[in-house]
Amino acid sequence: MDPSERPAVVFDNGTxxxxxxxxxxxxxxxxxxxxxxxxxxEPSFTIPTVVAVNESFLDQSEQCSSANWLAQYNAGxxxxxxxxxxxEALSHFKTSGLYSxxxxxxxxxxxxxxxxxxxxxQSIFNYLRCNPEEHYFLLTDxxxxxxxxxxxxxxxxxxxxxxxxxxxxxxSVLSLSAGFAYLKTLSEEDSEDSVSDMTGVVVDIGDGAPxxxxxxxxxxxxxxxxxxxxxGSDVTQFVMQLLQERGELLPPDDALDIARRVKETYCYxxxxxxKEFKKHDSKPSKYIKQWSAIKPxxxxxxxxxIGYERFLGPEPCHFFSECLSVYIxxxx
Length: 332
Prior knowledge:
A 5-stranded mixed beta sheet has the order 3-2-1-9-10. Strands 11, 12, 13 and 14 form a 4-stranded antiparallel beta sheet that branches. A 3-stranded antiparallel beta sheet has the order 5-4-6, sandwiched between helices. It folds into 2 domains: 3-172, 2-Layer Sandwich (Nucleotidyltransferase, domain 5); 232-319, ATPase, substrate binding domain, subdomain 4 (Actin, Chain A, domain 4, Alpha-Beta Complex). The protein contains 12 helices and 16 strands. Helix 1 (55-63) packs antiparallel against helix 2 and helix 7 crosses helix 8. The relative contact order is 0.11. The radius of gyration is 23 Å and the shape is globular. It is an alpha+beta fold. Helices cover 42% and strands 21% of the residues.
């Protein structure tokens, strides 16, 4: 069948996703991938972009001598086949000591192409259950990604999966087009020159590195893209560091998740930080909150105090907001 008659496969790699059932573990900040088909109202799958690899086969392959080439080959084949992705990878990592987690994406950009290829392979055949030779593919990429990175992405898709067609789009442009399409559905007037309306400045702030991307007629002005090395994940790490430096005994498996929940539930931005210190010192029972939970491995309940972290955690946002206003002004 002609691939144009089938819905295109959409891969959105390297974005953040907040869900109670998907939790970061062991200080490894997880990125999530959204998989689906064009035309659907929502993704078919939203899974962590991680791969669990069996370390025993990797060690066996390295320890085999060059003379015993057959054993080394078999160990390498098993290492290539015995891996899991997404929630299955997290489950095998926590229940078995044979697997190690690998995250191919850092700050929205791919830094491990072998692991990324394994992730795409499992996503296409085991999750979406489609033949890549019969569908066009749409992949998203970071605005600050290099041409070599996109060339490697296209090389894997064409040579490994033999896709008939591929389009790599910047995430910010897709965000602007989604907003434009939504406004078109609300408007009763059909504009004839719809392409010229795809112009704007996209401020992408989330778990990864924030970007300010100017878009004109659907095309990105690469020379005017501004990036800032501070995001929501860095604020979460800062809150976790404050809790640990104050002596709170955070379970290693849930430390990052607790810091994220503290940030989202209790943190606020004060107008005067000195007054906040005085208020917490004068009436600790009123301003200090408590977080109670159960350790996942031992089942023992524990409680931690949340004090200065409530207003010290968002402090990097002050500096971020000032730099952001300057970046937006320069982009415009």
